[in-house]
Amino acid sequence: MLEIRWHGRGGQGAKTAAFLLGEALATTGKYVQAFPEYGPERTGAPVVAYNRVADQPIRLHAPVTHPRYVVVLDLTLASAVDLGAGVPDDGLILVNTGRAPAEVRERLGLDGRPVRVLTVDAARIAMATLKRNIPNTPMLGALVAATGLLPKESFLEAMRDNLQHKFRNRPQVVDANLEAIRQAYEEVSA
């Protein structure tokens, strides 16, 4: 079973990203869970969401404590949350920042651990494409690029379907999100 943990702040779309990824992965015939950890979900408050993906039914219903992948929508959370907690040495932490992976690795206190750290400036991409700092869809594109969870075209097709359902009668919003996904997919840096 593959487990993913999302860290963000209220309003950045961590919960929505987990749900969109879950819906996209479900199109492959996998069993999927996508759920948030509820607390004070106000704008700016720390938010955690999760995904589980498996070839067989998932009977576990608890927070993800040992994620293979961690997606961080806001690096400022590093001062309050251990973003690398439970990540195995062969895991991945993907961070929304314009900083270099080596600098982020140091900030996360991962020196000496072989955990892979990748960065993408999803906030910049979101501002350029969506005109709002909502980095969730760019981070989805970067995650799929970094992990190979889905083939690019299959993922984009699933995202188009999901976004068209979510943003009925707003094709410009769908197109902007798809462009944000494509840009982050190409720009994720190792």
Key phrases:
PorC_KorC; alpha/beta; Pyrv/ketoisovalerate_OxRed_cat; Oxidoreductase_gamma_subunit; 2-oxoacid:acceptor oxidoreductase family protein; single chain; oxidoreductase; Pyruvate-ferredoxin Oxidoreductase, domain 3
Write the topology of this structure:
Layout: E1 2-9, H1 14-26, E2 31-37, E3 46-54, E4 69-72, E5 92-96, H2 101-107, E6 116-120, H3 122-129, H4 136-147, H5 152-166, H6 171-187
Parallel strand pairs: 1-4, 4-5, 5-6
Antiparallel strand pairs: 1-3, 2-3
Helix pairs in contact: 1-4, 1-5, 3-4, 3-6, 4-6, 5-6
Summarize the structure.
This is 2-oxoacid:acceptor oxidoreductase family protein. The chain is an alpha/beta fold and 190 residues long.
- Whole-number count of domains: 1
- CATH-level-2 architecture: 3-Layer(aba) Sandwich
Indicate the proportion of strand residues: 15-25%
Care to count the β-strands?
Answer: 6
Radius of gyration: 15 Å
CATH classification, class level:
Alpha Beta
The biggest sheet amounts to:
6 strands, mixed
Order of helical and strand elements? EHEEEEHEHHHH
Helix/strand-derived class?
alpha/beta
Strand order of the largest sheet: 2-3-1-4-5-6
Reported by name, the CATH topology is Pyruvate-ferredoxin Oxidoreductase, domain 3
Shape: globular
